[in-house]
Amino acid sequence: MQYFVYIGKNNKTIKLFSKLSIGVFCAVPTCQKAFRILDNIHEKYDAVLFVEQSTIFEDIKNISFIRKKYPGLYMVLVTDSITQEEGVKYLKAGANNTIKHETTRDTFVSLSTFLNCRKEQKIEDLQLKTQNQYSFHLPLWKRVFDIIFSSMALLFLSPLLIATALAIRLESKGQIIYKSKRVGSNYQIFDFLKFRSMYTDADKHLKDFNALNQYQQEEDILIKENEEKETSDINEEDLEEILLVSDDFVISEEDYIHQKSQEKVTFS
After folding, report:
1. Disulfide-capable partner of 23 in 2, 60, 182, 223 (CB 3.0 to 4.6 Å)?
2. Which domain of life is it from (predicted)?
């Protein structure tokens, strides 16, 4: 929501601005009454303060005081004519723009659009400022030291590095250098380079190397022993026994026949 606050007593201009404004329009005769409104809205909403031109001395005094009290407030001087010298004085005092008493709706639309862009820019600047506060900055001397020391290390270790590269090339097919993404300072993504230490597509050949995995062999032996133990605990009689299953009971066929025969003897 946008607020348009007008300081002045020109009823014709107040009526026109009230009709053209896009948002909430308030008109007050003095700066003190405008302060009561601005104190409640300037931190929460986008606000424009229209200052009706009177005498340059009084205007400069009021605008300077308002600018000190509300540094981020957008102030517009309402005037039909102004000299270049007067314009410089108003700008130095804190006025941002001028507008005529007889204006159009397009002017207010442009002003409203400008306020939205101004607000978005402030948010971006604030976010950038916050990021810079917590970002890591490498000292210049450290960067120079890293470059010099790493260059010397590469120079002295180049024979060993070349031999390692040749060994990797002769050992297996594929690229000598392995590249992957890493997160560095300030969450910047960079390419991490190292000598390849695995075969290309090694994940596709895992089953081929299970026989060489001692832990896998031990696990297979343990599973086999448990299966044999469970099998040995089952009697041959239990395997041959037939079970009769009902909703109310589970009984072997032999016990069921014996139970029925006992019932017949009892009834007879």
Report:
1. 2
2. Bacteria
